[in-house]
Amino acid sequence: MFETKAGVLLIGGLGFFGFAFLSNAVVPILMYKDLPEQTAEQVVNDRVLYQFHNLKERYPDQFDKYFALESVRDELAGYDANGDGRLSGEELPRQHASLLPLADADGDQHLAGDELERAASIVRCAQALRLGRQVYIGEGCWHCHSQFVRPVSNESKRWGEVSRTWEYQNELQRPVMFGTRRVGPDLSREGGRRGNDWHTVHFFQPQVVSPNSPMPPYPWLFDAGQDGVKTPDLPNQRGLALITYIQWLGSWLDSYPYYEELQDLEAEAY
Amino acid sequence: MSAAETRSEEITPPQDLVDTRLVLWYFVAACVFLLISMLGGILMALQLVHWNPLAGLELFSPGRWRMIHTNAVAYGFLANAFLGALHWAVPRLTMHRVASQALSYFIFLAWQAIVLLTAAGVVLGPSFQDQAWVAEASRNLGISMSLGAQGLEWGETPFWIDPVALLGLLLVAVNFMVPIAKAKGPLYVTLWYFMAAFVWTFLTYAMGNLLPEYTVAGTSAGAIGGLFIHDLVGLFVTPLGWGLMYYFVPIMLQRPIWSHGLSLVGFWGLAFFYPLQGIHHFLYTPIPMFLQHGAIISTIAVELVVTTVVINFFGTLWGQGRAFVDNLPIRWFYTGMIYYFLTCLQCSMQVTLTFQKLIHFTDWVVGHAHLVMFGVFSMWLFGVMTYLIPRLLNRPWYSHKLCEWHFWLSAAGVLVMASDLILAGVFQGYFWAALQPWDVSVVASQPFWITRVFAGLAMFGGFLCFLYNFWMTWSARSHV
């Protein structure tokens, strides 16, 4: 049996592999099967929307060029079949159906006025998150930045709350971005730590704001101005999307420490 | 070798048993991709020490080329060199030709296309990610359209290549399983490893490239990702590597493997314990703790199995230790085995939760990875090439001295690189745990990263010696 073709192929090849797959992959899948996987729209929250709108204020031309909110709002308003000025669940097309519970602030099962604005923002923000995640993966960010806080080595002191499963149960963690190496800091609690202007400068030339950083510059996340020269004032679609994605990371938590001040905190403690 | 020898008395081997031209082609392809991969590694190493001469050029972004570095090693160098060696070893072991010569050449061309398209996707894909048609197609198809890399290490192969690569792996299995199926009597150890590797490689590739992208998210995707990363080394590279060792070492030493019983322990121990370890890549994540403990225990268990295999091979060498000095391929193989034992010993310690607290996410892991992939498997394949190329070209090496340079620069370079990065990892881990500002760990890493650049250049220099030697040997033949 141990030296026959059937033994090697069926027991060694298929059998042991299958046993490992059942015990190590199917078990966690079954354990988390009741934890629903959220869509990009569902994980948009007020904090990331604040940063998203802040991008619009800071870089209005660039933002409107790539993520115009008005066109989506007008598109949504156009679905108002019965012309009563508000959208019901039936009127919303299928790809936007999830917006109703997300944007319906007054709970009347209809979207109108400000709720329509919010729905448009959610659509655009989710679009930015999806693209931002693609950029994050495509540029290899995840090879130098992790996205999980471990319960050891004082990590929760530096970054904040230890990572838990529900944080990863969404379409933007397909595959999960745990990461393999920290050349730069963990990013799972990075959202809101720094302003959007810091991020644009940092992506354009990291050493300007972080002198010792070995991170390469990413000028291709920016457009060129009228003089043909790229500037950090003109983040392009990929740039805006990546910043939105970074500002989203951790935005689902209420607070985490500002680790640059840890030295001061430690000094106080002693 | 007894099984193959007895068989050779019964059957007269067919003419053109081995397609030597194809073996040679595979080795050439392997060398081209290793050259590209090493250049990518050097670029990333230079970036870390602020010496990147190509900074700011989108198509030479170190982030993208780091993925070329790892993928070109796994699928360009290792896979091609293994396929070349398989085309030599399998027909000679079974006394039957591979299923089809036409299929062999088709697989050769298809595999090069797969690797090149992966590289093109990884380098060019992200530049087109913001096109409107991508978002459109993504919405219509209901999948995330990453034109460039996918977010799983070694699974970066863009999604549109995955089905083609799977088909290629299936054809490889068919092509080699036909002669193995024809062989009668008990199978030699090498063929156990090869047969299992054909099954495992296909299953591993399918698991890692399809499930975490299309079926599950989050923690479950992490568990599968861990299995994939680990199985690619453990169930594709390792069995093919050991299979080749079981084939070449007894031939070169002209004596059978020391203990058949230990070979059985080695194979079945690997087959059982290796697939159970993947989750040890993600210790202290939200993956259930009992699964993490299981992965740790099976990792330590496999170290015991590895020890039996290494003992078996040193038992085979016993009494012929001089071969380690005189016989260059044997020196490649046994140096690789010493590194293999070291890296597995290291693994059985670093996998514990105690070590993980300190070294996870640090350069320790990078050092370990280089010791495994270069110090063991690449060195074995260099040994195989050093042994086979004169036989394929019917001519001795152009320069034995350059062969020696290749060995010493590679063996010393990877040892320096691994020790350097492992030590760097300890420093980084303590700086982080001590809550020093992040900058401190980056600045303190600089001397280690600079050392790494030069260790890498030594390994690269050794490989250039090999390439030049290969070229001169080959071109000398055409003048005869």
Question: Can you describe this structure in just a few lines?
Answer:
Chain A contains twelve helices and four strands. With 270 residues, chain A is mainly alpha-helical. In chain A, a hairpin with a 5-residue loop joins strand 3 and strand 4.
Compile the SSE list and pairings.
The complex is a heterodimer of chains A (270) and B (480).
Chain A: H1 5-31, H2 40-43, H3 46-58, H4 60-67, H5 69-77, E1 87-88, H6 99-103, E2 110-111, H7 114-138, H8 155-158, H9 196-204, H10 206-209, E3 222-224, E4 230-235, H11 237-248, H12 262-269
Antiparallel strand pairs in A: 1-2, 3-4
Helix pairs in contact in A: 3-4, 3-11, 5-7, 7-11
Chain B: H1 2-10, H2 20-48, H3 62-94, H4 101-124, H5 132-141, H6 162-182, H7 189-214, H8 218-253, H9 260-273, H10 289-317, H11 322-326, H12 328-350, H13 353-359, H14 363-393, H15 400-433, H16 438-479
Describe the model.
The complex is a heterodimer of chains A (270) and B (480). Chain A is built from 12 helices and 4 strands; from the N terminus they run H-H-H-H-H-E-H-E-H-H-H-H-E-E-H-H. Chain A is mainly alpha-helical and 270 residues long. Chain A has 2 domains: 41-129, Orthogonal Bundle (Recoverin, domain 1); 155-269, Cytochrome c-like domain (Cytochrome Bc1 Complex, Chain D, domain 2, Orthogonal Bundle). Chain A is globular, with a radius of gyration of 23 Å. The N and C termini of chain A lie far apart (67 Å). Chain B is built from 16 helices and no strands. Chain B is an all-alpha fold and 480 residues long. The model of chain B is unreliable at 1-9 (pLDDT under 50). The longest helix of chain B is centred in the C-terminal third of the chain and has 42 residues, at 438-479. Chain B has helices at residues 2-10, 20-48, 62-94, 101-124, 132-141, 162-182, 189-214, 218-253, 260-273, 289-317, 322-326, 328-350, 353-359, 363-393, 400-433, 438-479. Chains A and B meet through helix 1, helix 7, helix 8, helix 11 and helix 12 of A and helix 3, helix 5, helix 7, helix 8 and helix 9 of B.
